[in-house]
């Protein structure tokens, strides 16, 4: 063997040993996949794939309905053991009704004994043709709204005039309880539409039964629409049917007052008597405008029945406060100016509002600002346009003028839900969700009050302009709808004829024009 061959062999053995040693040592650095916990968790997560992130498809398409059915069955099964709130204690002795508060039928007969039933307005009687034509026009609006409701949504709470079917807002629960009928009865009576009125009365007699009401309903809405509606038409007619229905509904609301403070909850279940507040209300509290508006109806109900439990239930009640302040003054007037406490509360509240919230814009417009989280927000809601009825004439006139400006500064001549005051814009809605109009009547109510107090013809003219704007922008072949954007001509409608449209807008238009 030559020297070179031996050299090659030695070199080969050296490199072979190094390579073998390298392989042997690397083996000890290879991870143990079987024992690595992190790796095992990762593989499980990876294996789960989309099923880990996306819930499995329910193979029972009727699960929602079956859950509801099981819930209702359980409610019925436990009916005997339901924890129904106990009604407030009733005083044994009936109170003496003040002389200033006269029974409605007696008032009706006394007031109209010599001059006839003036509560039924015959269009144009003693008026010039212009006024007659305008009142006939409003009556025809009422006919159009009512006839379409009767045709497409009779017994439902409201009408969808575009799609021509019934509609119910959540505040009415899930039962068709004829809110539009109850809201419109006094308007039909005032306008002398007696055939329609009689049909509505028959529905109330045969169908208005709150024992059938399903789900949670608004105490506030039930009071102002149903209790207030029944008491209003009772005051006109003296028909005991309406008093009986008002008592029935108010009794169903009474358990809402069984709270530690005596302040009623906002929602009540008519089947169980259980009540609660809205979850979105600050701290789960009751809303001032809602508890305040119970005063007038409940006090009047005690007056006409002689039963003090209704007024006693509410006597314990000492933002969203518009209706509260409005009703304080109304109750003082309704009581024949006997309810001094309501008047004093109104005076105190009005003084604070004047000192803290009444503002005048750079353009000279009077408005009611909002106080939120410790600071003023220079915004006014349409609901605050009731302020034309405030006791101080200069403020009332200023607010009414501002609300008219909010209408006049739109292309449709209809007012937005809320409007703001900035350096660049006054009495205009700046946000998209404030530009709608849902047939609200507050501005027109202020026109009426200011017209009666001042006899200034501009308020009648403003009222007629509003009638024309509603007819042009809200009317369809199936009734009247709100509009989604008051700044847009020929814009989309919301397809809801609110139940308060006949009893709010149309009722107040007749005496204005």
From TrEMBL:
Major enzyme class: hydrolase
List cofactor names only: Ca(2+)
Q: Which UniProt keywords apply?
A: Disulfide bond, Glycosidase, Hydrolase
Q: Name one GO cellular component term.
A: Golgi membrane
The residues responsible for catalysis, as annotated, are 221 (proton donor), 322, 417 (proton donor), 442
Q: Which Gene3D superfamilies match?
A: 1.50.10.10
Give the EC number(s) under which this enzyme is classified. 3.2.1.-
What processes in GO biological process is this protein linked to? carbohydrate metabolic process
- Write down the InterPro entries for this protein, in alphabetical order: 6hp_glycosidase-like_sf, Glyco_hydro_47, Glycosyl_Hydrolase_47, Seven-hairpin_glycosidases
Q: In which pathway does it act?
A: Protein modification; protein glycosylation
Disulfide cross-links:
385-403
Q: Name one GO molecular function term.
A: mannosyl-oligosaccharide 1,2-alpha-mannosidase activity
Q: What protein family does this chain belong to?
A: Belongs to the glycosyl hydrolase 47 family.
- The name of this protein is alpha-1,2-Mannosidase
Organism, as annotated? Lepeophtheirus salmonis
């Amino acid at each position: 063997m030559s020297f070179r061959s031996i050299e090659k062999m030695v070199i080969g053995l050296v490199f072979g040993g190094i390579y073998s040693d390298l392989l042997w040592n690397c083996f000890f650095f290879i991870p143990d996949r079987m024992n690595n916990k992190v790796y095992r968790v990762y593989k499980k997560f990876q294996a789960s794939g989309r099923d880990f992130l996306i819930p499995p498809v329910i193979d029972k398409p009727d699960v929602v309905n079956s859950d509801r059915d099981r819930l209702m069955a359980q409610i019925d099964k436990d009916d005997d053991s339901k924890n129904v709130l106990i009604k407030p204690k009733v005083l044994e002795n009936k109170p003496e009704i003040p002389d200033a508060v006269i029974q409605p039928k007696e008032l009706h007969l006394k007031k109209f004994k010599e001059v006839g039933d003036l509560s039924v307005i015959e269009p144009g009687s003693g008026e010039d043709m212009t006024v007659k034509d305008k009142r006939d026009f409003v009556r025809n609006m009422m006919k159009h709204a009512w006839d379409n409701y009767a045709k497409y949504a009779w017994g439902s709470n409201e009408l969808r005039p575009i799609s021509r079917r019934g509609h119910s807002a959540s505040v009415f629960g899930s039962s068709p309880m004829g809110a539009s009928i109850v809201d419109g009865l006094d308007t039909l009576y005032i306008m002398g539409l007696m055939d329609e009125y009689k049909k509505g009365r028959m529905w109330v007699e045969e169908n208005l039964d709150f024992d059938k009401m399903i789900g949670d309903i608004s105490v506030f809405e039930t009071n102002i629409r149903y209790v207030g509606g029944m008491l209003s038409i009772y005051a006109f007619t003296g028909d005991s049917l309406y008093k009986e229905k008002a008592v029935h509904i108010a009794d169903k609301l009474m358990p809402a007052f069984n709270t530690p403070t005596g302040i009623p909850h906002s929602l009540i279940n008519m089947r169980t008597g259980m009540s609660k507040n809205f979850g979105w209300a600050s701290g789960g509290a009751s809303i001032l405008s809602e508890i305040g508006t119970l005063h007038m109806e409940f006090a009047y109900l005690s007056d006409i029945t002689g039963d003090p439990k209704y007024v006693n239930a509410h006597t314990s009640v000492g933002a969203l406060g518009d209706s509260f302040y409005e009703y304080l003054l109304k109750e003082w007037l309704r009581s024949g100016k006997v309810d001094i406490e309501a008047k004093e509360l109104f005076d105190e509240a009005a003084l604070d509002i004047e000192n803290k919230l009444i503002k005048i814009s750079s353009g000279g417009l009077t408005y009611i600002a909002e106080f939120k989280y410790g600071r003023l927000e220079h915004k006014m809601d349409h609901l605050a346009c009731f302020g034309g009825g405030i006791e101080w004439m200069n403020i009332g006139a200023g607010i009414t003028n501002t609300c008219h400006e909010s209408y006049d500064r739109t292309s449709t001549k209809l007012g937005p839900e809320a409007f703001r005051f900035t350096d660049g814009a006054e009495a205009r809605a700046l946000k998209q969700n404030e530009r709608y109009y849902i047939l609200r009547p507050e501005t027109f109510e202020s026109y009426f009050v200011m017209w009666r107090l001042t006899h200034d013809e501009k308020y009648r003219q403003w009222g007629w302009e509003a009638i024309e704007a509603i007819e042009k922008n809200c009317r369809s072949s199936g009734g009247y709808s709100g509009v989604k954007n008051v700044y847009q001509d020929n814009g989309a409608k919301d397809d809801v004829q609110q139940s308060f449209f006949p009893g709010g807008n149309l009722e107040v238009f007749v005496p204005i024009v």
